Amino acid sequence: MTVRQLLVEQAAHVSVAVGGYDIGSGRTVPTVAAVLALISVVVGGLALARSAGRIGVGNGRAGAIVGLGLGLISAAIGGLHMANSAGGLGTGNGLAGAIVALVLGLIGMIIGGLVLVRSHRSATS
C-alpha cells in the first residue's frame, strides 16, 4: 500500500464528533483553506502596519508577498470548493468554510497588494 493510498484512506475516515457535530472530509479542505486565508489577512495586516512605519523596521514587502500568495491559494481553493459543493449551507459539505476562505482570501490579497504598491512607491521616491 502506497503512502498516497494510506492518506486517502485516512482522509475518508476523519471524523470528530463533538456534541453531534461531525467534521468529515467534506469540511476539512475548506476549513484548512479558511485558516490559510486568516493567516494571510494577519500577515498582510502586519506588513501593512510595517509599511506605514508603525511596527518594526523595513517596508513589509516579504509579508505582503506571503499574504498575497496565501490569499490567492485560499481564495482559489474556496472558490473551487464552492463551485463543486452539492447542497446548501448546513448540509455538511463545507460550503460555509469555502465562503469564508474565499472572502478572507480576497481580503488578504487586497491587503498584500496595497502593501506592495506602498513599498513600490517608497522605493521609487
The total tally of domains equals 1
User: What are the secondary-structure elements, in order, as H or E?
Assistant: HEEHHH
Strand order of the largest sheet: 1-2
* Largest β-sheet summary: 2 strands, antiparallel
- Overall average pLDDT: 77
Q: What is the distance, rounded to the nearest whole angstrom, between the alpha carbons of the first and last residues? A: 59 Å
Shape: elongated
Q: Report strand %.
A: under 5%
How would you summarize what this structure contains?
The chain contains four helices and two strands. It is mainly alpha-helical.
Molecular structure report:
By secondary structure, this protein is mainly alpha-helical. It has one domain (25-124). Helix content is 73%, strand content 5%. It has four helices and two strands, in the order αββααα. It has a two-stranded antiparallel ribbon with strand order 1-2. Strand 1 (16-18) and strand 2 form a beta hairpin. Helix 2 runs antiparallel to helix 3 (61-84) and helix 2 runs parallel beside helix 4. It is elongated. It starts with a helix and ends with a helix. Residues 14-20 have low confidence and may be disordered. This is DUF6223 family protein. The chain crosses the membrane at residues 29-49, 61-83, 95-117. InterPro entries: DUF6223. Keywords: Membrane, Transmembrane, Transmembrane helix. Pfam families: DUF6223 (PF19733).
